[in-house]
Write a structure and sequence with these properties.
Strand order of the largest sheet of chain A: 1-2
Number of helices of chain A: 19
Strand content of chain A: under 5%
Largest sheet of chain A: 2 strands, antiparallel
Shape of chain A: globular
Strand order of the largest sheet of chain B: 10-22-21-20-11-18-19
Structural class of chain A: mainly alpha
Number of strands of chain B: 22
Oligomer: heterodimer
Mean pLDDT of chain B: 84
Radius of gyration of chain A: 22 Å
Shape of chain B: elongated
Largest interface: A-B, 71 and 75 residues
Helix content of chain A: 55-70%
Number of strands of chain A: 4
Largest sheet of chain B: 7 strands, mixed
Distance between the termini of chain B: 62 Å
Order of helices and strands of chain A: HHHHHHHEEHHHHHHHEEHHHHH
Mean pLDDT of chain A: 92
Low-confidence stretches of chain A: none
């Protein structure tokens, strides 16, 4: 079988699986977030944190809960990393330095999982399990909670309340992420991913040298790493490591896990707003962009010009032979477009255009389909923007799902679309202007070197977490600035989204008429795709031109 | 407009021909206005004025910076760029100035009407002493007396007397109107002129806040505040501007890293090309022009907010009389009794109506002529005829014709009156006649009986069916509204049966029969509770609460001052049908904004393809960036010509679109889907393609300039 055929089969199987699952799963999630009943273990948790699960929260309270919880997570994880040597199963690793611990704590609470450390050389099993894996669950659940809160803003009429954060958080973990993680772990372990609490083995290599092989609870973290669009690998090599991602089957399972929640949430949204069609419109916009990027990526990686590439049958450098070029391309697009950031190949080794595609995928704002929850709320914000412009063109002041988009709403939307690009561009510009920070660039003095820095901040601010490689990011400067980029990209946007949810929930519902812009028709989907691509494209075109475009057009 | 009275005062504005249904007529735009408005445009360069439009303010700052650069380090490129950046700002101001200029002319005519008048104030009640004070000294509650030839010194209500008043200063309508104390025609407006008789007016507004003052402020744009949607759009434009500011400012360190440092002028040129200058320049002109289009229709909107709301209206409350139907009932058919021919009945009906000057009576004569070919007869033709005119007491009209000594009396009138007349003369009323009368009443019509007394005795000939006549084209109009998603509700004092018959005929969606002001109010609140926006017209004082409650309340100028106060628009022509046009103007305003925003953003794509290769893929530049030359798909001559072409295009497109901004985009009542597809096609795709063509053409010219090409 040629790689192309294999690639097409793989993609078709993946799409078929997602198509089969997204409806029941999306509806299930809708039920989870709208059910009135609490299970007994959930009640225990509410009691423990002192939350009244039956009270509704206005957006301000909801946001305060999110921030308080995340601050607690950030400090807790920071403490674990700094006190690692005092903890069990530390494998003898030293505590992390302050700047790196901040970076790592910010990274995992912000659902980014940027790693400026090598997993197997810096953190022990306890921190992996009690710190990082826990954050992999809860930070994902926070994203989903915020998305559901925004959806409630559309549904609720003349009520300021957008749900209860603690209920949304706990249910997301207990009823959605945990069960799938358990099943997923079993599947991965059965397919060859390792899972143990063993001490490192030292083995003698064929050439007579010594190598330390670290085992650990890999499969359990691997599943939630993908499922919660986290991306922080147990090993430095992430999903390219054979212990994490041993074969083509696990590769497909992992891609499926990455995409299943983001591609099912539009269904949840449709069900919650009482119109499946609205959900499909959002899904269609997400899927279209994702699919086009997969095709473009596979094409550029398979057919790039150059003697070496033609002999190898594609851009194989930095890609695992057991996974292949199409499998790596599919993974790369899926991981960069979902804010996951797990990698099974080295994005720096992709062709110039391929590298540009991974970056553009993130620059779109992680909304196609985006991170768990964050993808949905990001896309809904873009939908509001699209409605604003398109809505005017049908001769009415804009409205989306029966809610008017006025100056107050636009202010929040405008700030949302502003904050991440501004962070990326400013931080990239400043880093490149500082001679000291330029020294971290591996391929300095070339467009590729510019891409390394641009990619780092893009990945951080968009909460992706994948690295282009090449940039030595474990410096005080990069640890702190990328850490800040991650926190801004996560929590400032969440604050804006929740404020938006609160405003929408207070509004009354405008009934739909023939004169209303139909937001479930292909025309609107096309407009939405256009708005997403054009707004991002225009913002980043100059920066991309100097990096991947200059390299890729050569 | 059916007047022959010529007033000495110049009319403020000739009333326009009513536009074709479904089309909002274009405003006038002449290129000469551009030149005339140039001084105003230059005056607006004041940064304090510019700061109101964040996009253009950024361009102005950029222009100042490039000017400094060009002075310090002069070159052809620097100066051409600088000049065109300034032109961009000036063109934007020009758009606004032209829009405002059109209102100014009207304001000047209004001011003429507002000459300082001397008021004849009454001291001590309506019969008190008279004193002369300047109009500006009047207070609310003062009584003033006005006689023929006097200018009414302020807004108020007539408390005593009747007068004919020339209101042409405000309405442009030269026919005098009657103003009398009590009732719904008591309001008078300062600046209008009493033509006959004497009235006593109680002043209701302070000088300086009168209707005419507000009108001047409105048409001049002085009172113009940004509307909610305009504010929202401004926020979006400001945020796009900030994003591009970030993109351009941070580009410099990236460029330095790539060994391709850019001059400040080039960066400013890039910034100006990227930020949404097209819509930023035209936004306020679009708003002013929207108000202006209303003024051209003789409608005054008290706020821009009301115009926007008009675009959103989903329920229209329309008064039956005057809006849906012609003002009066008209003869629709003649129903003859058994043994009577149609021609006989028609002849009698016509004869009996010759002396009936009421609209109903005229309509009978017209029907006899159009349906039965009976031309109107003069008195002479009838021999000796004695006419019996219609009176409210007899409720009958007719004629007694004496021909060769035989008297033939013909009567027509209300059924009961005619029945009594026949019975009085010894005739009998057949049962069939009663059935016909009841049938017509049941169907919502008004029956009139026709009877005759001649040699054969007194007898009933038949029935005339009078009914409300729905204005021509209303059904199509309502169909259009339905396609736009707007529900029409007919309001009438008629009984439900009559109302239903007319509602069905006119094709409205719903009706409110036997409507009281309270019913109207309840209906509005019910619709609004469902999230709908409601528009209505009204003139009476009892309409005032409903007018205030409605999202768009259009008061008739003939109405009371309470109604005018309550509504957020005043129709100077007092034509309730105009509500439909108001909705269309509101929609057109919003569409124009959306279309030009889309166009403006779509334009940026092409500008990147012009400027980015010009900035980086230059001969002698870093080898690593040379591949970017592949982006120069327009094959622009040189980097300098490429950048200048983009800047020039960016400036010229503003001027090119001024007429569109003032006129509004073409608007036809279509469903939302079709409208979106159409506008996305024209302004979205058009916005993508147009600059590629435009920039290339400009480049062909620019490259001829020595030192550039």
């Amino acid at each position: 079988m040629s790689p192309t055929v294999a690639g097409i089969l793989q993609l078709s199987l993946l799409v078929a699986l997602l198509a089969a699952v997204h409806r029941p799963f999306g509806d299930y999630m809708a039920k989870v977030y709208s059910s009135e009943k609490h299970t007994r273990p959930e009640r225990w948790i509410y009691k423990a944190v002192g939350a009244d699960p039956d009270s509704g929260q206005r957006w301000g309270i909801y946001l305060r809960s999110v921030l308080a919880f995340s601050m607690f997570s950030l400090l807790g994880l920071y403490a674990l990393l700094r006190l690692q040597d005092k903890l069990p199963w530390s494998l003898g690793f030293a505590p992390m330095k302050a700047d790196q611990a901040f970076n790592t704590a910010a990274s995992f609470t912000a659902n980014t999982n940027w790693q400026s450390y090598s997993g197997e050389q810096a953190v022990g099993h306890f921190v992996q399990m009690a710190g990082l894996t826990v954050q992999n669950f809860v930070s994902a659940a926070v994203g989903m909670a915020v998305a559901v809160a925004l959806v409630r803003g559309f549904v609720r009429v003349r009520s300021g309340e957008i749900g209860n954060f603690w209920v949304d958080l706990v249910r997301g973990c207990v009823r959605i992420l945990l069960p799938i993680a358990v099943v997923g772990t079993i599947v991965l372990v059965a397919s060859g991913t390792i899972q143990n609490l063993a001490d490192p083995h030292t083995v003698t290599t064929l050439s007579g040298g010594h190598q330390t092989v670290t085992g650990g609870p890999v499969a359990s973290q691997e599943v939630v790493k993908e499922l919660g669009t986290n991306g922080g690998g147990f090993y430095n090599a992430n999903s390219a490591h054979p212990f994490e991602n041993p074969n083509a089957f696990t590769n497909l399972v992992e891609i499926f896990l990455i995409l299943v929640i983001p591609f099912s949430l539009p269904r949840t949204f449709g069900t919650l707003v009482g119109s499946a069609k609205q959900g499909y419109a959002i899904l269609a916009a997400m899927f279209t962009i994702w699919f086009v990027f997969v095709v473009l990526m596979t094409w550029t990686e398979m057919h790039h010009n150059g003697t070496a590439l033609e002999i190898a049958g594609g851009a194989t450098e930095g890609k695992e032979q057991r996974i292949g070029v199409p499998g790596s391309s599919l993974f790369a697009v899926s991981t960069t477009m979902t804010s996951t950031g797990a990698v099974n190949s080295f994005h720096s080794s992709f062709t110039g255009l391929g590298g540009g595609i991974t970056m553009l995928g993130m620059m779109l704002g992680e909304i196609t389909p985006g991170g768990v929850g964050s993808g949905l709320y990001g896309m809904l914000v873009m939908a509001i923007l699209a409605v604003f412009v398109a809505g005017l063109m049908v001769g009415r002041t804009p409205e989306y799902l029966g809610k008017k988009i006025g100056a107050g709403e636009m202010k929040l939307v405008a700030m949302y679309i502003l904050v991440v690009p501004a962070t990326i561009l400013t931080m990239t510009g400043v880093a490149l202007a500082l001679p000291g920070e330029r020294a971290s660039i591996l391929n300095s003095d070339s467009p590729h070197g510019l891409s390394e820095v641009l990619y780092a901040y893009t990945s951080g601010a968009n909460n992706n977490g994948s690295a282009f490689a090449g940039l030595s990011a474990n410096t005080e400067y990069y640890n702190v600035t990328i850490g800040l980029a991650m926190l801004i990209g996560r929590f400032v946007t969440i604050a804006l989204v929740l404020a938006l949810a609160g405003r929408l929930a207070e509004q009354r519902q405008v009934p739909e008429t023939v004169g209303t812009l139909k937001t479930h028709k292909p025309l609107f989907v096309g407009t939405l795709v256009g708005v997403v691509v054009i707004v991002t494209g225009l913002t980043f075109f100059p920066a991309l031109a100097l990096g991947p475009l200059a390299e890729g057009l050569a | 407009m059916s007047t022959t009275v010529q007033t000495p005062q110049t009319t403020a504005q000739a009333p326009e021909q009513p536009p074709a249904p479904g089309r909002v007529a274009a405003g006038l735009f002449e290129p000469r206005q551009l030149l005339k408005s140039l001084p105003d445009a230059l005056r607006k360069l004041d940064p304090r004025v510019m700061a109101k439009s964040p996009v253009m303010f950024v361009v102005e700052i950029g222009s100042v910076l490039t000017t400094i650069m060009a002075v310090k380090d002069p070159s052809t490129f620097a100066w051409i760029t600088t000049v065109w950046l300034w032109l961009t700002v000036i063109f934007a101001n020009l758009a606004e100035a032209v829009a405002e200029g059109r209102g100014k002319a009207q304001a000047d005519t209004l001011r003429k009407a507002k000459t300082d008048t001397v008021a004849r104030r009454l001291v001590g009640g309506t019969s008190g002493r008279e004193e002369r004070v300047p109009g500006t000294d009047l207070k609310v509650g003062d009584l003033v007396v006005c006689e023929a030839g006097d200018i009414i010194p302020g807004d108020g209500d007539v408390v005593e007397g009747v007068a004919s008043v020339d209101e042409s200063a405000i309405t442009g309508e030269s026919a005098p109107v009657i103003r009398e104390s009590g009732g719904d025609r008591s309001a008078v407006t300062g600046g209008t002129k009493v033509l006959s008789d004497r009235i006593v007016v109680k002043i209701t507004t302070k000088p300086g806040e009168t209707f005419i003052d507000r009108m001047i402020a409105l048409v001049e744009g002085a009172a113009r505040q940004k509307t909610p949607n305009e504010i929202a759009l401004n926020i979006l434009l400001a945020s796009l501007t900030i994003i591009f500011l970030f993109a351009v400012v941070t580009l410099q360190p990236l460029a330095i890293y790539s060994h391709a440092e850019q001059s400040i002028i080039v960066l400013i040129a890039l910034l100006v090309c990227l930020i949404p200058t097209t819509i930023g320049a035209l936004l306020s002109a679009i708003g002013i022009a929207g108000m202006d289009r209303l003024v051209q229709r003789n409608v005054l909107a008290m706020s821009g907010r009301a115009v926007e709301a008009a675009g959103d209206v989903s329920t229209l409350l329309l008064d039956k009389t005057g809006t849906i139907t012609l003002g009066n009932r008209q003869a629709a058919e003649f129903v003859a009794l058994d043994g009577v021919t149609q021609a006989e009945l028609a002849d009698a009906a016509q004869l009996s109506s010759l002396a009936d000057e009421t609209p109903e009576g005229r309509s009978i004569v017209v029907l006899a002529k159009t349906a039965y070919g009976l031309r109107e007869r003069d008195e002479g033709e009838l021999g000796h005829a004695e006419f019996v005119p219609f009176t409210a007491q007899t409720r009958m009209s007719g004629v007694d014709v004496t021909n060769a000594g035989v008297v033939r009396r013909v009567r027509k009138g209300a059924a009961s009156a005619v029945n009594a007349w026949v019975a009085e003369r010894g005739g009998s009323v057949p049962r069939r006649s009663g059935e016909l009368v009841d049938g017509i009443s049941a169907a919502g019509g008004t029956p009139l009986l026709v009877a005759v007394e001649d040699a054969a005795g007194a007898r009933v000939l038949g029935v005339i069916h009078l009914k409300d006549v729905v204005k021509e084209g209303m059904r199509e109009r309502f169909d259009e509204l339905r396609r736009m998603g707007i529900k029409t509700v007919m309001i009438t004092g008629d009984n439900p049966l009559t109302a239903k018959a007319i509602a069905d005929e006119a094709g409205v969606d719903d009706f409110l029969a036997e409507a009281t002001p309270e019913d109207k109010m309840a209906l509005i609140k019910r619709e609004q509770a469902g999230g709908k926006l409601v528009a209505m017209t009204g003139d009476g004082t009892n309409d005032a609460p409903a007018l205030a409650q409605a999202d768009v309340g259009v008061a008739m100028n003939t109405g009371t001052s309470a109604a005018k106060e309550a509504g957020n628009m005043v129709d100077l022509d007092s034509n309730p049908t105009k509500l439909i046009e108001i909705v269309e103007i509101g929609k057109q305003l919003l569409i124009t904004r959306g279309a030009l925003t889309t166009f403006s953003i779509a334009n940026d794509v092409a500008k990147y393809f012009a400027i980015i290769p010009a900035m980086f893929a230059v001969a002698g530049g870093p080898a690593g960036l040379a591949p970017l030359d592949k982006l120069n798909i327009m094959h622009l001559a040189t980097p300098e010509s490429a950048i200048i072409s983009a800047v020039v295009f960016n400036a010229l497109i503003i001027v090119a679109l001024i007429p569109l901004a003032l006129r509004g985009v073409r608007y036809r009542p279509l469903s939302a889907d079709k409208m979106l597809a159409r506008n996305l096609g024209i302004y979205g795709l058009g916005g993508l393609v147009a600059p590629f063509v435009g920039i290339k053409l400009i480049d062909l010219l620019v490259s001829l300039i020595p030192g550039i090409g």
